[in-house]
Amino acid sequence: MDATSLTVFFKAALIGLLIAAPVGPIGLLTMQRTLERGLAAGLATGMGAAVADALYGAIGAFGVSWLIHALIEARTPLALGGGAILLVLAWRTWRAPVTDAVAPARDARNLLGLAAGTFLLTLANPATIVSFIAVFGSLGGSLQTAPSPLWMVAGVLAGSAAWWLLLTALIAHQRSRFTPAWRGRINRGSAGLLAGFALWQWASLVAR
């Protein structure tokens, strides 16, 4: 790895971290699932978002301009679909039973399902699309001189994954401090916020 590739990697890692870190619907889902189902379920949820971030990074890094324009044009149906998914998740979170013990994901297929769900939800989030359009512009000069755009993709994935690993590890470590009653309140609060994100996403379409 030469100096230019290393610079692109760390720039992209920082951007991946900054895009993943703000608390939004994916962050809420990740924290709630870590509390209820343990570290593996929370980490799988976050990794789905990290892979989606890396995919957007790949689209920009390899200059697939027609796909970028297609995503911009598809912001409305993506927002509608993403909002509907958030409402379903809000309903399930509200109704989820709370027990004393962790209810772990049953197997690898279950973990893959959690990751796939947040992967699709992240792809359908218009805010993610807008964020990565800004990223493509900020790294444009560096990408032209980098030996391979794969360093940008790897950086975005590493930065985003590092955030989800840190977040889920902290939540899992503190899980024993939360009583079932408190976790029930957190579930209901998370459900309300998820529904709020869905309605805000739809309202933003009307305001455009």
TrEMBL record:
Q: Where in the cell is it found?
A: Cell membrane
Q: What is its main location?
A: membrane
Q: How does it sit in the membrane?
A: Multi-pass membrane protein
Any one GO CC term of this protein is: plasma membrane
Name the Gene Ontology molecular function terms of this record: amino acid transmembrane transporter activity
Please give the InterPro entries that the UniProt record associates with this protein: LeuE-type
Keywords of this entry: Cell membrane, Membrane, Transmembrane, Transmembrane helix
Q: Where are the transmembrane segments?
A: 6-29, 41-68, 74-91, 111-138, 150-173, 185-203
Q: What is the protein name given in its UniProt record?
A: Lysine transporter LysE
Which organism is the protein's source?
Answer: Hydrogenophaga aromaticivorans
